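Structural prep section.
Before we set up the soaks we want a predicted structure of the protein with zinc ion in place, mainly to decide which crystallisation condition to try first. Input record follows.
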Amino acid sequence: MAEKLKIISLGGLNEIGKNLTVYEYGGDMIIVDVGMGFPDDDMYGIDVVIPDFSYLIKNKDRIRGIFLTHGHEDHIGSLPYLLRDVNVPIYATRMTAGLVKLKLEEHRLVSKTKLITCEAGETVKAGKFSVEFIHVNHSIADACGFAIKCAVGTVIHTGDFKIDPTPIQGGMIDLGRLGQLGKEGVLALLADSTNVERPGFTKSERSVGDSFDALFRGCEQRIIVTTFASNVDRIQQIIDVAARYGRKVAVTGRSMENAMKVSTELGYMKIPDGVLVDLAHIKSLPKNKICIITTGSQGETMSALTRMAFNTHRQVDIQAGDRVILSASAIPGNENAIGSVINELYRKDAEVVNERDRALHVSGHACQEELKIIHALVKPKFFIPVHGEQRMLKTHAKLAQQMGMPPKNIIISDIGKVIELTANSAKINGTVPAGRVFVDGYGVGDVGSVVLRDRKHLAEDGMIVVVVSMSGEDGSVVSGPDIITRGFVYVKESEGLMEELRKVAVNALENCQRDSLTDWAAIKSEIKNAISSFLYKKTKRNPMILPVIMEV
Ligand SMILES: [Zn+2]
Ligand SMILES: [Zn+2]
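Run finished without errors. Recording the tokens verbatim:
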């Protein structure tokens, strides 16, 4: 029987984030993207969420390479965590490689990692696979899709993309090549589903430039613009318009400074001489000669814009009359954080201009009509929607059906599911381990659902510690019980309740003695139950209760 091509997503399905797709054929594996996700609000203390790598670690000797579509965190963010266990060559375009290198430096992985830069149009051999880089448009420079070939057939993996006929740099997506591959015959298409619910076309990045021009022209105030740090073309447009109206540009926010450093070094951004100034020097300039570009478009707590708004930025405070331009849309879940920054800007009498007032942001993802063009050009036999929540995957499936694809040729998968393809069949067959691994500080995977449940409990109800010293000889109470609480009530104003709790604990201990209970675990559970039911009756609260017995 002929070998099958297997496609397994370890992230990026039924979620936006931590994209990672494995292709497997004839004993060889390649990986497309190694992204990370961000924690939900109730994942207390979790910094980032990464895919479960156990399947990759188990098969690390078969992995022939990692291919990266572009430099967004949801596509490269968990690379450092995978590279700890799996050391294989990474292939990426120059901009993506530049951003990956920053990450590797941060994690001290540069010397042991083989990072190979490729150009759109180039084809890389990786075991029994060959992977061709195809230029696409997106909200970051140098993004690519892939044509992945093996003996079973060709798979087009679009990566994140849009069709932008007038991009700022890099040229339009290579539709010609996609059409050519479509004519040669494409077995399967894996395409970006992010914007599948939006009709029409995504506007060109260039359209934002006109809005900037209108906001800079004749403006006598200081201008502060925030956008996504990685959107090089957007930042380029802001710099160009600032230069056009004689403003100097200062940049604040580490991620933005990093992205600008990489993109200017590699030639993706061109800053006219003398335009860039250090933030420390803007005080000496008149207001109508200043433009500050800053991070914080999502209301991130530690970002430069948030700090400016709340007066905790070391160099810049928001002043009355400042024109603050938010050149970004809210990523779902960030609305409240952004809202509180905007309120603070209003409190300082700044003028806030956002998407509602003008076209200040365009998406980096294809809308319905663009997706249809790709489907029409690629003409795949099978279609696998990716990069989306269930709703988007299903909507994308419907779009493919509208274009004539039989429903049985569309596969909506989930992370960990194995899609098996032959030249004329596609089906889900089996699963591999997949899920979410939590990163907290240096710890990877040591915080699981049990720890998170405790953190949630502590966060919502606080805790009570009951400390008793007992004699090791006869089990009599030597001192205590003492009650210590955190996050439960303010003790100084609740002395009565504390005393009642102490009495409940004393009672419980007396009951234990009367029943000749000597097992300490049993005594602890007795104390816990007594306090818990007393508190629930009295306060309708349910704090975590930790009885501690000290042997003396
Ligand atoms: Zn992206
Ligand atoms: Zn993405």
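Observations: Residues 70, 72, 138, 160, 364 surround zinc ion (ligand 1) (CB under 6 Å).
Flagged for discussion at group meeting.
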